[in-house]
Design goal:
Elements lengths: L1 H8 L4 E5 L4 H9 L3 E5 L3 H15 L14 H23 L7 E5 L4 H14 L5 E7 L4 H8 L24 H10 L2 E5 L4 H9 L13 H11 L1 H6 L8 E3 L8 H8 L3 H5 L6
Parallel strand pairs: 1-2, 3-4, 3-6, 4-5
Length: 274
Amino acid sequence: GIAWGAKRTGCQAVIYLGEGVSERIADKMRGFGAEVRRVAGNYEASLKAAREDAEQHGGILVQDVSWSGYEKIPARIHAGYGIVAEEILEQTEKLDSPKPTHVLVNAGVGGFACAVCGYLWHKLGAARPLFVCVEPTEADSVQHCSKLHKLEPLPDSKGGTMQVGLNCMEVSPLAWRVLETGVDHFVSVPDGAIGSCMKLLAEHSSPIAAGESGVAGLGVLLAAASQPELKKALQLDESSRVMVVICEAPPDADLYKDCVGVSPEEALAGKCVQ
């Protein structure tokens, strides 16, 4: 998004990527004219490098993790994420459908989840849906904070997931203000469930090509269907109307093909439809 926006406004984007992000993703950014700088380590290491470079050279740092003295830009990014929640309500009204009873959305540093939760909470008040925050088992930073009732990074033993877009060890303080009280349930999903979820979406009569960091919510729903205790804990029953937010198209075509068996283009053309 930064590379695309910078190109539209005639600015030069310099993007820092951790070692877990594939070259295919980096090449997409370069295709929009961005300079990509690789950083040894995880997402937090790339953020640290970007922050230091911006401070040293007078650049404008654009990303959604907040800290003391740096909240305006993350807040504006969260507001942009909120458009997704706005569209959810607009589309349910247009289809004359009952509003969802549950919303499942993925979290990395928490910004996107915060925006969707906060918008629906603001608009619907007491009638808002139950909100389920979904993360990778190896990067469940929001759930970790919820257990401790405070912000704290994940231990070093955690980290390393194919759900690269969610591979974050720390929660943004700005996002935590909403998630701490706004989330009803926290659930983590192992990488082993991701490929089958991507394939299931490709097999649908209206196929969806979803990326590996966007489908964990569907994994929770499928698990609840076969695990009565999880179903009960999430307060799911036959009257539930569940909204799963799929927040990513395939960023890496090779990985998608490894998981699904066809390219994203072939999936969208219906090659997997049963």
